[in-house]
Amino acid sequence: LHVAPRTLAIPEGDVGCLSVGNAGGGTLPAPTFDAPPGVRVVDVTPSGATGRAYAVLRLDGTPATEATLTVAAGAAGDASVTLTPP
């Protein structure tokens, strides 16, 4: 599993972008996300794209503290992204 970037600095009420692909070059199983409280992940992949693109939102009222977002994609593997304050 390939995830980039591995660190996202997102202030409260803002959004970051995450790319997810299969490092093995095969079909990417549908990723699932284990997001910390106050963080939402939304699929924003354009039609016809090879990999996937996700908006990572830190909701208003959620302090921008360091946290971990875990991405799992079946046989493609798992990866972690560190969410940091700006």
Globular, elongated, flat, extended or rod-shaped: what is the shape? elongated
Distance between the termini: 26 Å
Instruction: Quickly give the structural class.
Output: mainly beta
Question: In percent, how much strand structure appears in the residues?
Answer: over 45%
Q: What is the tally of beta strands?
A: 8
Radius of gyration (CA) equals 13 Å
Described by strand count, sense and barrel closure, the largest sheet is: 4 strands, antiparallel
Helix content: under 10%
User: Strands across the major sheet, in which order?
Assistant: 1-3-6-5
Helix-strand pattern, N to C? EEEEEEEE
What's the average pLDDT? 92
Question: What low-confidence regions span 5 or more consecutive residues with pLDDT below 50?
Answer: none
- Helix count from the secondary structure assignment: 0
**Oligomer state of the chains in this structure:** single chain
Summarize this structure as a short list of keywords or feature phrases.
86 residues; mainly beta; 4-stranded antiparallel sheet; 4-stranded mixed sheet; elongated
Write up what this structure looks like.
This protein is mostly beta strands and 86 residues long. It has no helices and eight strands. The protein has strands spanning 2-4, 7-9, 15-21, 32-34, 39-43, 52-58, 67-72, 78-84. Strand 5 (39-43) and strand 6 form a beta hairpin. 20% of the residues are buried. The mean pLDDT is 92.
